[in-house]
Write a structure and sequence with these properties.
The protein has helices at residues 3-21, 24-34, 39-48, 56-64, 78-91, 94-114, 128-133, 138-141, 154-160, 176-183, 185-196. The chain is an all-alpha fold. It has one domain (3-160). The model is unreliable at 169-183 (pLDDT under 50).
């Protein structure tokens, strides 16, 4: 899912949770787990991607165009969510419960929307053990579909997110003449020339002129 999509869904969820519970720690934890969890993308970019340009637009384009080499993503894992759930229950921490709730919102959205850009399910990908056993190498983790280059400004990329390089185009009706051009351009050229000529009338019978009478 695009960063902007996560921002919108997290803001809506925070508003709903605060409106129902009035709990600031729970709402703050939800914001951290729902949106700021993506800080691990920045860590991967700085630590493992070479060369890199330290600018927000360059960072977004690098990820959304599928040019990453390593995907550690230490905060994106089912294992971490399970451990934090146990810790929140043991400590009765409203902030931790909010963070777990934010993760439970963020990661399924990633599985659903990012999964459209791959040829496989992303449920195993969000296991830290699964990524670790494959060396965190993108080439061994994801069968990525070709992604388009993004030339828009930062905020457009932020909210729009990645897109496929060759989106499916709906079939359109082609006129008969166009089909004939595709099959036989020379014949179609003749057909167009004939179409511009006026309709010819049937040939008239020739008048027989009487010759001079012989004497």
């Amino acid at each position: 899912m695009s960063p902007g999509g996560h921002l919108v869904t997290t803001v809506l969820a925070c508003g709903a949770v605060y409106g129902v519970t009035g709990s600031t720690p729970l709402t703050a934890g939800l914001a951290a787990g729902g949106f700021f969890i993506d800080v691990d993308h920045v860590l991967d970019y700085v630590l493992f991607e070479r060369p890199f340009r330290f600018s927000p637009r360059a960072f977004l384009r690098h990820y959304l165009e599928g040019r990453t080499r390593r995907l550690v993503l230490i905060l994106h894992s089912w294992e971490l969510m399970g451990l934090l759930t146990l810790a929140a229950w043991a400590l009765a921490s409203a902030w931790l419960w909010g963070y777990v709730l934010g993760m439970a919102l963020h990661m399924p959205l990633d599985v659903k929307f990012n999964g459209r850009l791959t040829n496989q399910s992303l449920i195993p990908f969000y296991s830290f053990v699964y990524r670790w056993r494959r060396g965190f190498l993108r080439s061994r983790l994801i069968e990525q579909k070709p992604l388009a280059r993004l030339h828009e400004g930062f905020w457009v990329i932020f909210f729009r997110g990645p897109r496929l390089r060759n989106p499916q185009v709906r079939a359109v009706h082609r006129p008969v003449l166009a089909e004939r051009v595709l099959r036989n351009p020379a014949r179609a050229t003749t057909a167009r020339a004939e179409a511009r000529l006026p309709a010819s009338s049937p040939p008239r019978p020739r008048r027989l002129e009487a010759g001079p009478k012989s004497s």
